[in-house]
Design brief:
By secondary structure, the chain is mainly alpha-helical. It contains 12 helices and no strands.
Length: about 260
Amino acid sequence: MTTLTLSTGHGNRTGFPQALAYEWIKFRSVRSTVWTTAATAVLPVLGAVFVAATGSLQPDDTVLGGSLTLSVVAQMLAAVVGALVVMGEYSSGTIRTTFAAVPHRGTVFAAKATLVAAVMYVLTLLSCSTAYVVGDAMLPEGRYAQGDPLPALFGIAASFAVAAVLGLAVGTLVRHSAGAVTTVIGLLLLPSLFGPLFGNAERWIAGLSPTAALEKLTQTSDAAADTVGSLGPWPSLLLVAACTAAVSLVALLLLRRRDA
């Protein structure tokens, strides 16, 4: 882990831009974070090649949905990246160095959240767009519905960014690597699994998952109302973003009260 001492020159107070630069240096210095981020970006493209090469799409699927078959797995990795950004520091004890360099913990959390959201948004927008282009080029023309890639691809990238911030918030709350990873993956999957048990509230419960919003945005045939809720893709994404913001607020409040 790279250790830096930052100062703005004004009473040794470090602002958000400096904190963001500090986080970026740490982010690209930790192998586990870099490799997991790379895997997140590569998986959708590999999935598009595999699905097109094997012809394993369902007849009612779309080119967009089929090309992004592995996007759900990639989204889980994005959430893990968010957790790793904070868990690595708690595990190594360097979180104390971070708080010494940037005493305002809200600034630290905001810098981490901005970084993981921006990195995931840009990378997955490029990755998922590439996956769609590859799938469209390799799949037989006219056999499957095309789907509507725009503006869906922007929402898909946003769902990855939201998942990464959710992972960061969970990692901040749990502060244990295995527990944080297990919890965040559970948050991604369990709403869709248990949503049908809640009767009329199913459309809200199942729609709480970033995975559900992602599947709706990819327009895959797997995004049935009984598994991902009947909310539309954009309302579902907004609901997920609101819930992630609430979890992040709780994480920030606890971060300010806890010892490092």
